[in-house]
Hints:
The protein has helices at about 20-30, 35-40, 45-50, 60-70, 80-85, 120-125, 130-140, 195-205, 210-220, and strands spanning about 115-120, 145-150, 175, 180-185, 195, 230-235. By secondary structure, it is α+β, with helices and mostly antiparallel strands.
Amino acid sequence: MPPRPREHRPAPQGELNEAAHLADRLQAAGYTKRDIARIINRDPSLVSQFYTKNKGAAFVTALREALTAVETGGITDLPELAAIAARHITRRTTSSGARARVRTKAVLITPTGSGTGRVGAQAIASGSARLRPLIAEAARQSLRLACTVRLAKTAYLHPSGSRTDSPGIRRDVIQRADHTEERSYGSAQTGGLDAADFARRVDAAGGDVTAAVHQWLVESGRIRADAQIIHLEVRTWRPR
């Protein structure tokens, strides 16, 4: 099903580089920045940097071909657009002509099942995409997981240390000077949380880890529905 056209107000054209200009046209056709990121197989934060940091030159041809497929070919399926774009995306090269290493914050799970991933405000706003592979792999290996969230103190429904909120792990409550508070949910001592369940929640949220964690916290009666997650961390381990 093609995306629904949406109102989009592009920035003045003189201020846009070519990648941002093409991204604007895709947004005018009904795609979000997250959709565009999926088309070029990159993090959504990179698409935002087309506008803020003048990035995206390496993706101009791929974006142009995807846009042509949408506007003249009638193609709307994201995987199909991604396949078209992939044919026009090449890796950067060093001054010697060798392939440049991909700069990424790798998320790894050790043979013991231990893995950690953290995201801050910018990544959280775009769905904490870099945490999705960690959760998916933890589910594949039948691991347990814990998460730490940071919110305004007033966003929590229970006082810190409440057994209803986070039984047995009061020591993992950190109060900040800016009136926010970090709380951890799940631990090896309490058995942790089921990674497979969280992976299903993330899939149901379209890959948006932030939304999946937020929904779980609301459904379990821990936070207010209008709460905003400021920091998010996921840890995994293998149950004994």
